[in-house]
Design a protein that fits this description.
Layout: E1 2-3, E2 14-20, H1 28-39, E3 43-47, H2 50-53, E4 62-66, E5 69-73, E6 78-84, E7 90-98, H3 104-118, E8 123-131, E9 141-145, H4 148-154, E10 157-158, H5 167-178, E11 182-190, H6 199-213, H7 222-238, H8 241-262, H9 265-279
Parallel strand pairs: 2-7, 2-8, 8-11, 9-10
Antiparallel strand pairs: 1-3, 3-6, 4-5, 6-7, 9-11
Helix pairs in contact: 1-6, 3-5, 6-7
Protein name: PAC2 family protein
InterPro entries: Proteasome_assmbl_chaperone_2 (IPR019151), PSMG2_sf (IPR038389), Rv2714-like (IPR008492)
Pfam family, one: PAC2
């Protein structure tokens, strides 16, 4: 571990983590944490020693020039902290790095050591995977946890996955064994357009973080980038009849599978999001009986 400076006492801290590599289709998850770090001006306070966890033939260092001096940036995992003030003040510890090449258990224990030291109340891990999902529909994001009580409280799925896993799955289980509540959000990225970036999937993950932590995340240009991305993929699909036909098949399968949900829980969730955002708007002037409020059509 390389600690860069002492940390102040944090307010209701949570930890949000994402790792480049196998668990990061379209760079959606790592881009979400990068966005939080940028818009909230994260302050790096520690970095893991790259020698302990990375194979430099797999993740090579990069050379760059700094005012005529050659410098090397080593692949690693860095921790930064941001303070959010809306709707309430709390601190978020951001973990942004690359899936390690070795010593995964030690890697997770080192991160959890920071979580214990900083008094982190919950760990939120972001991931993205390739799936049979059309780019024209909302990005499916599933929330899972290994904690049965947390699954019930937050209306999440209890993880029952069996098979190969990445650092996201390993960290999730490490949190469970350490007694730290942990949630993982997975965004599904269309496998036929897997190349990064995927701002639409990044935006979907940020919406989930916003809802879970009850914070307001400035989205900047992400909504515009998301629309531009979808239009660009629309164009590419239109130029290839086989791809266009395949996308249509995915759309039909998706719409059929989600039809019951679309009439119930999904609408309720979207309405709750609308009310939350509406509460942040300035109040309208009250009107007398029988008079329409400003902006109401009366229809």
């Amino acid at each position: 571990m390389i600690e860069l400076e002492d940390m102040p006492e944090l307010i209701d801290p949570v930890m949000v983590a994402a790792f480049e590599g196998w668990n990061d289709a379209g760079d959606a998850a790592s881009s979400a944490v990068a966005h939080l770090d940028e818009i909230w001006e994260g302050k790096v306070f520690a970095a893991l020693d790259a020698e302990d966890y990375y194979d430099f033939q797999v993740n090579r260092p990069t050379v760059w020039m700094d005012e005529g001096v050659r410098r090397i940036t080593w692949p690693t995992t860095r921790l930064s902290v941001v303070r959010v003030t809306e709707p309430k003040t709390r601190d978020i510890v951001l973990i942004r790095g690359i899936e390690p090449s070795m010593r995964w258990r030690s890697f997770c224990q080192e991160l959890l050591g920071f979580a214990h030291e900083l008094g982190v109340e919950m760990v939120v891990i972001l991931g993205a995977l390739l799936g049979d999902t059309p780019h024209t529909r909302p990005v499916p994001v599933s929330g899972v946890t290994s904690d049965g009580d947390l699954a019930t409280t937050l209306d999440l799925e209890e993880s029952k996955y069996e098979g190969p896993t990445g650092i996201v799955g390993v960290l999730q289980e490490a949190c469970a064994h350490a007694g730290i509540p942990a949630v993982t959000f997975w965004a599904a990225v269309p496998h036929y357009v897997a190349q990064p970036p995927n701002p639409k999937a990044t935006l979907a993950l940020l919406n989930k973080v916003e809802d879970l932590l009850d914070v307001r995340i400035p989205l900047g240009e992400l909504p515009d980038d998301s629309r531009a991305w979808q239009l660009g993929v629309d164009q590419l699909a239109a130029e290839d009849s086989e791809v266009a036909e395949y996308v249509q098949q995915l759309e039909e399968a998706k719409d059929t599978a989600e039809l019951p949900e679309a009439s119930g829980e999904a609408i309720a969730r979207e309405f709750e999001r609308y009310l939350k955002r509406r509460d942040n708007q300035p109040p309208r002037h009250e009107t007398g009986p029988g008079k329409a409020s400003e902006g109401d059509s009366g229809e």
